[in-house]
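Model it.
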Amino acid sequence: MRVFTLLFFFSFYILFAKEIVPYRYITASEAVSDFVKAGEILVIGTKEGIIDIYDLKSNTIIDKIVLKKQTNILGDEIGVLIPSVDYLNAKLVFVSRKLNTYGELYVYEEKKLIKILDTSEKITFEKIKFVDANRIIINTMGNELILFDIKKKKFLYRKQLNLASFSDFVLSEDKKYLYTTDETPLINKIEINSGNIVEQYQQANKRDIFSVDYKNGLLLSGGKDSRVVLYKTPSEYKITMGEFFIYSVGLNPDATKAAFTKNENDEISVIDSKTLKELYLLKGHQTTIIKIDFYAPNELITADEGNRLMFWKLN
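Modeled.
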């Protein structure tokens, strides 16, 4: 067994990190819960039942979906949480979650909104992603993994991973595997077609994991222990440290750079994934960061618990 040396940031790394501010902002209709970029289309899910479909080239909202409000115990009308969205080949899939935690699954295509699953299924949707044009992978709040055919409206499997609360998952680029984690120090590598666990990563993180990413053979994780772990294999890894809980992480496409929420000031550190040297410090967020999307070698989008998305260029 070969374990990479445990490395930490040193003060001279920080001194030479370049500070970056956003070059562009987009304001969503409500507080952001999730987003996905596909080409020049940006789909933004919100905490109030609104989805903005944004054209980045024209810098305008080109479509909007508004779900019917729900009534709370005080009789007030409030929006429905949209915890996850995904977009593939002009088809949008998203899930909602109501006050009783049960949710609904929708497909939106050619201006038509179709409800595929309703609350009678008693699914507590948390995250969804397209596997292909007809299949989506779902993880629930209670850590049930579901492969679902939206065309046939059929469950291909439903598997309870464990009893811990779900945190995050990411698909491999070929969409054959899923790396999923929960409020434990464990990451499971799962074959999507079968739902079988093929590998487990559990040596480096010591407490709850909040966020994972996978690009170009490198698996990145961060969580409650303030460790940022870069796994090559379950037994080969590097570690660096943040200054607070690591709420979100992200890798650029070739995995040469890793980004993570660094501290209580809602700053994002970007490091060289080989040396762990801090290259950039991204400043601009004022509330907890919920997502980092490193969609190009030196470009990323981030969102926090507010209603603005921030665009960054590393230069």
